[in-house]
Amino acid sequence: MTTPARSRWRWIPSLYFAEGLPYAAVMFVSVIMYKKLGISNAEMAFFTSWLYLPWIIKPLWSPLVDILRTRRAWIVSMQLLIGAGFAAIALAIPTDDFFRYTLAAFWLVAFSSATHDIAADGFYILSLNDHEQAWFVGIRNTFYRLAMIAGQGLLVMVAGYLETSTGDIALAWSISFYLLAAVYLVLFAWHRYALPRPALDVESAVVSVHALLEKFVATFADFFRKAHIGKILAFLLLYRVAEAQLVKLAAPFLLDDTSAGGLGLGTAEVGFVYGTVGWVMLSIGGIAGGLLAARNGLKYWLWWMVAAINLPNLVYVLLAWQQPDSFLLVNLAVGLEQFGYGFGFTAYTLYMIYVARGRHSTAHFAICTGFMALGMMLPGMVSGLLQEALGYELFFMWVMLATLPSFAIVALIPLDENFGRNDDTS
Fold first, then answer.
1. Domains in the chain: how many in total?
2. Tens digit of pLDDT for each residue in 12-41?
3. Residue 101: what pLDDT?
4. Which of 81, 100, 175, 230 is the most buried (most CB within 10 A)?
5. How many degrees, rounded to 5, is the angle at CA 49 between CA 389 and CA 163?
């Protein structure tokens, strides 16, 4: 059974906005907040990288979402918990031991968000037929990206405005997270009312737990029996090894004073760079990558994509050495890097789909995303220590050197010639 057309528009956009916003807050906004609150780059990069962990291991508890309660119940419960987590962050920021308390609250948000992802994607599948799922996929992706704009751009710009107007950095960020908590209180209330109750969204019988867990273990084992699994895992872990280090220090570099090797931008300016210009160029790069891969196949564009995700990182080397005071030039440089990232990340996404093909495609794709998050977490953990030891100039040169494993593994991975083309029937 499908839901009425009006009902679908009432919940799909808001649901995927709710899915994207906490990820932006945990992975991006936390970095800027801790930088502004005086946390060192080494501590900030190490501890915020650990926040990837819930998205790495979320396949491990995904059966519980299927077994216990309905997906609808999980969604509204997790939105309430996410809101509570944001409120806890806001409460903890003015305290003396804010770093420990806010990290604990970010963990709550991260685990709740990862669980929300599982429930939301499952609810989407259960609520819509195949045609509706395909038709609304662009809508859900658009509102997920809008959530990223709201987090990386609008929220950071609001925090920057409050820093200037109040003269109190801690108060500014506390108010910003109270606003996020209020947003999730509204989302919780809305989805409790607007989400449909599809007939297939029912709680599983307890007697099926053992059988489901056996199937779950078998699905994992089947993934690791794939041909060339070693090369596949190496690709998932190494393709973004340079980007994983860059993404942790890019915003702190823009924020740091010129005497510390940074560019001395304000918080609102950084929000504008990444939340508007950077996001637009990222989206254009991603769309272009998808269209070209569909036209000629992934293998045809693979080397162009690995170059695109890595070589534009050179702009940070130039920015670090020249330290320009032109805001326009900084926007152009970040826009170029983000376009390359969007274009190059297309290869990563398509290759995960390629690897996941088969009878367990949904579960295997989730496992791939777990390794993707692990590939971001591990390099990110050491990036702050490296930057503090090397300085920004040499650190960004190290990032360029760290692109070499990405090129090396692309030369080794198995890939069908025509995968991704419109006429591909494999």
1. 2
2. 889 989 988 999 999 889 999 999 999 999
3. 96
4. 81
5. 85
Nearest partner of 342 among 384, 280, 268, judged by Cα: 280
The set of residues, in sequence order, having a beta carbon less than 8 Å from that of 59 and lying 6+ positions away, is 220, 363, 366, 367, 370
| Closest C-alpha among 253, 250, 241 to residue 376 | 241
Distance CA 136, CA 326 (A): 41
The Cα-based distances of 136 to 80, 280, 356 in angstroms read 25, 21, 22
| Model confidence, pTM | 0.81
User: Over 60: is that where the pLDDT of 77 sits?
Assistant: yes
Those residues whose C-beta lies under 8 Å from the C-beta of residue 18, and which sit 6 or more positions away, are 79, 82, 116, 120, 147, 184, 187, 191
* Whether 104 contacts 77, CB under 8 Å: no
Residue 248's SS3 state is: helix
Residues 115 and 234 in one domain: no
Whether residue 291 is contained in a domain is answered as yes
Do 242 and 179 lie in one domain? The reply is no
Locate 396 and state its tokens.
């960004």
Residue 419 near residue 426 (C-beta atoms within 8 A): yes
Which two three-digit tokens encode residue 401?
Answer: 């050197």
Q: Among 176, 194, 212, give the residue marking a domain's end.
A: 194
Instruction: Give residue-wise pLDDT tens across range 268-307.
Output: 999 899 888 888 888 888 888 888 887 888 888 899 999 9
Structural domain including 257 reads 222-426
Q: Are residues 41 and 171 located together in one domain of the fold?
A: yes
Residue 211 in domain:
no
CB proximity list for 182: less than 8 A, separation 6 or greater:
83
Q: How far is CA 209 from CA 294, 309, 311, in A?
A: 41, 43, 48
The lowest-confidence range among 45-49, 109-113, 150-154, 208-212 is 208-212
Average pLDDT, the chain: 86
DSSP letters for 296-322: H-HHHHHHHHHHHHHGGGHHHHHHHHH
Higher pLDDT, 260 or 418: 260
57 and 107 fall within a common domain: yes
pLDDT at 2: 47
